Amino acid sequence: MSLYQLSKLMFDLNRDGDLSDRFKQDPESVVCAYALTEEERGALLGPDIGLLYVLGVNGQLLMHYAALCGIEWSDYLQRMRDGVLVHGPVRAGIYALTTSPHTKVAG
Amino acid sequence: MSLVFAGVCSHAPGITGREERAPRELRDPFYAAYDRMRRALEDSRPDAVIVIAAEHFANFFMNNMPAFAMGMAESYTGPIEAVDWLKVPKREIRGDPALSQRLITTILDTVDVAYAEEWRFDHGIMVPLHFLDPQNRMTVIPANINCQGPPLTPLHRAWAFGEAIRRAADAAPERIAVIGTGGISHWPATPDSGRINEPWDREFLGRWARNDRTAMLSYTDAETYAEAGQGGFEIRTFIAAAAAAGGPGQVLHYAPIPIYAVGCTVATMEIA
């Protein structure tokens, strides 16, 4: 479990335009610099937004990563709900689901 | 000269980024309240505005997370978010490093605040500035309280930070405004986005408007997380603004707008 490294990568992508450009062209060349588990690496490269959410990525990082991947807001919310249905409850962090994954709250 | 203005407002990115998705009858009165706050802020003729925000990993991360930070730069840029996502244009915001340095020096007497000569504003500052300083005329000094990466800054320390800002503002010859931005209850960027605990918000705003220190500081983080979500941790910015102002508050607007993911709040507070 290297949630910190996974989160740090998203923090770096948010802040560094050159890095995010490189990521869009060759994501593996960026990801290899971070000590991720195979599960985390797979979720990131998918991208599997639902699994990233379940792994415990802070929503303030994940929503920007989803936007970077071209995922629209309502789709982003649905992918997280789907992630909980597939992978189970959020495993870490302070962004756990408090409603049912079957409930659409807004958007 | 002294503190000349204090207020608080929401900063959720949906307020601008998903502007068109809210019903007009909810959106227009909220934007009108921002405009009332803008006029009150302008009427106070501030030389500088301290924006106490709860940023979201634009600058500060768990590699080196300060409990408090203040900007000390000549200028700042923002928003860090993509323009087509936040729908706020990029701009350069004027700072005042000499004033920052004097304020920070006084604040350090009582609060260990980190300082930063680089700071890229995220929606926590840019959404409020979009409404409160649309012409980009003001001098801004950013301040941050860690509301995002636990262990979080304790509420009573947020109060102490507000008091320290007040002492520093009163010791400066400039006219200083303070604006806290954030919460109240919300579950941002989660599938629960749009969940809003209106009774909890109204109870908190009552305590805030009475400037009831004891009542505001009595929340535990466990209670806040359970009833107001991780977004509720941002009450720290409202608490700091109340400590700086000292007087009673007036809530100009409060109404939940679920697609904006927050109970949309605009309020001012008397300086006492």
Largest interchain contact: A-B, 32 and 32 residues
Oligomer: heterodimer
Report the biggest beta sheet of chain B as strand number plus sense, adding barrel if it closes.
8 strands, mixed
CATH fold type of chain A:
Protocatechuate 4,5-dioxygenase, Chain A
Ends distance of chain A: 31 Å
- What would the average pLDDT of chain A be, to the nearest integer? 95
- What distance separates the N and C termini of chain B? 14 Å
Spell the H/E element sequence of chain A.
Answer: HHHHHHH
Q: Total domains of chain A, how many?
A: 1
Residue fraction in strands of chain A: under 5%
Task: Give the radius of gyration of chain A.
Answer: 13 Å
Gist?
The complex is a heterodimer of chains A (107) and B (272). By secondary structure, chain A is mainly alpha-helical. Chain A is built from 7 helices and no strands.
Keywords for this entry:
heterodimer; A: 107 residues; mainly alpha; Protocatechuate 4,5-dioxygenase, Chain A; 7 helices; globular; B: 272 residues; alpha/beta; Protocatechuate 4,5-dioxygenase, Chain B; 8-stranded mixed β-sheet; two-stranded antiparallel sheet; 10 strands; 24% strand
Explain how this protein is built.
Chain A has 107 residues and is an all-alpha fold. Chain A has one domain: Protocatechuate 4,5-dioxygenase, Chain A (Orthogonal Bundle), CATH 1.10.700.10. Chain A is 63% helix and 0% strand. Chain A is globular. The model of chain A has no long low-confidence stretch (mean pLDDT 95). With 272 residues, chain B is of the alpha/beta class. Chain B has a single domain (2-271), classed as Protocatechuate 4,5-dioxygenase, Chain B (3-Layer(aba) Sandwich), CATH 3.40.830.10. Chain B is 38% helix and 24% strand. Chain B is built from ten helices and ten strands. Chain B has helices at 14-17, 24-43, 83-86, 97-107, 123-132, 155-171, 198-209, 213-217, 221-228, 235-245, and strands spanning 2-9, 48-53, 68-71, 75-78, 91-94, 114-116, 140-145, 175-181, 246-257, 262-271. In chain B, the strands form two sheets. Chain B has an eight-stranded mixed sheet, with helices on both faces. In chain B, strands 4-5 form a two-stranded antiparallel sheet. Chain B is globular. The two termini of chain B are 14 Å apart. The mean pLDDT of chain B is 97. Chain A binds chain B through residues 4, 7-8, 11, 14-15, 53, 58-64, 67-68, 73, 77-78, 80-81, 84, 94-99, 101, 105-107, and chain B through 17-18, 21, 56-58, 61-63, 80-82, 85, 120, 148-150, 187-195, 225, 229-230, 258-259, 261.
